[in-house]
Amino acid sequence: MSWFDCLKRCFCRPPAWVDREVRCASPTGLHRMAYRQWGDPGNPRVLVCVHGLTRNGRDFDDLARALMPHYRVVCPDVVGRGRSGRLKDASGYAIPQYVADMVTLIARLDAEEVHWVGTSMGGLIGMALAGMPDTPINRMVLNDVGPVITGESLRRIGQYVGADPTWATFDEALAYVRQVSAPFGPLSDAQWRHLTETSVSCRADGRWGFRYDPAIGEAFRMAFAAVDIDLWPLYEAVRCPTLAVRGAESDLLRRETWQQMAERGPRAKLAEIAGVGHAPMFMDDSQIAVVRDFLLG
């Protein structure tokens, strides 16, 4: 190979990812939904990865890198989070709006069918969409979420969501993220730093704060009382092959609910991640393998 070919190969190689956005509609107008797309943009095999309540699509960076040889991996920031826009009416921060936005995204991707990985809230969005007639989802991973959401977990989440704390330094923000997200399990310093860097930003006053709309907390408390929520009808409408992943120490997905998921609805395959609560982050090889083996199996 000539030196010119080497240079061309280095500088003309397409990037591993690209940041894009799509406009979505709500009753009060239009809003932007940002997403990161990994892999070959022409790949007809599409994997959509959707994050939890206050997180963002960058949570899936490691999973996306591992699966981009097989898929076009698309990781959106649900409206009100990350780089996406915010809603004018906080009551719109709810599953019906999120499902509508995902349908718009899938249409933008020109995908007839998609595989789906949903963590917590992202799993609820996936369940709602997968249970609809003519759904585009034909294989799904539900990450530490299921048809019963415990009141215990709702109380814990309600204590911090929407509080909008700020910190004088990035290191203070890092310490806070490690504290409130301790159920994610034993992550490395580099992994905690990544999760913090992608979820906070420095504001105009020089202080650091979360990159999500605090009004999400208002909508959360309006929608959920601190009692168990029964979503079995939603789950039992799902027909596609499903994997239910549970953090072994989860307070959101009880073990008995998780076990029943193998017997009802889509009769999910089950996988449990030791040493983790709510929720596994798919940032190490063993956790990634659980998802990869199911999706490609």
Question: Secondary structure elements and their pairing?
Answer:
Blueprint: H1 3-11, E1 17-26, E2 29-38, E3 46-50, H2 61-67, E4 72-76, H3 95-108, E5 114-119, H4 121-130, E6 137-143, E7 148-149, H5 151-158, E8 166-167, H6 170-180, H7 189-197, E9 200-202, E10 208-210, H8 215-223, E11 229-230, H9 232-236, E12 242-247, H10 255-260, E13 269-273, H11 285-296
Parallel strand pairs: 3-4, 3-5, 5-6, 6-12, 12-13
Antiparallel strand pairs: 1-2, 2-4, 7-11, 8-10, 9-10
Helix pairs in contact: 3-4, 6-7
Structure description:
The chain is α/β, with parallel strands linked by helices and 297 residues long. It has a domain at 17-150 and 230-296: Alpha/Beta hydrolase fold, catalytic domain (Rossmann fold). Helices cover 34% and strands 22% of the residues. The protein has 11 helices and 13 strands. An 8-stranded mixed beta sheet has the order 1-2-4-3-5-6-12-13, sandwiched between helices. Strands 8-10-9 form a 3-stranded antiparallel beta sheet. Helix 2 links the parallel strand 3 (46-50) and strand 4 (72-76). Helix 3 packs across helix 4 (121-130).
Explain briefly what this protein structure is.
With 297 residues, this protein is an alpha/beta fold.
